[in-house]
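One chain shown below:
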Amino acid sequence: MISRDKAFEELKQYVQSDSLMKHSLAVEAAMIGYAEKFDENVEKWAACGLLHDIDFEKYPEEHPLKGVDILTELGYPEEFVIAVKGHSDETNTPRETLLSKTLYAVDELASFVVACVLVRPNKFEGLKVKSVKKKLKSSGFAKAVDRDIIKRGAEELEVDFSEHIQTVINALTKREKELKEEGLSLIE
């Protein structure tokens, strides 16, 4: 049985960096949004979003393959582990399941949406797809985010690009309110 709370405790054993923790929480939020949209197991999808970069801080040169080993040792099922392995193009792992396609599709986009929110005076309030798309066209904004992966992710997931962005905005907005109640945040 996969539990979001257990996954969060496991993540904290490997991630100390505030920025990586916030990224993991953002990807978790997007995965929750899609799990609800696709009527999938929210706990499993949340855990996958949280743990997808479990190895990145301690083993950056071995990412995500060291994460595959860690998650296998922790007893996560093969579909979960393969989704984590496939979120990186460098592993040449086919993304065949809805879980793996979704993780790939939201990884870069979740971080990009957070970057958009950070430069807005009203933060999440009133954030529009149009604004995110405009920022995507600006190569100087959030340079580390790979725009090709964002587009390819939506294509592989077979969702309309605007709808994809809206789903992630909605998921992050909702999750931010919940995280604040737990004393956490995607943006503070």
Q: What stands out?
A: Residues 52 and 84 are 5 Å apart (CA to CA). The chain has one domain: 4-181. The chain has a mean pLDDT of 96.
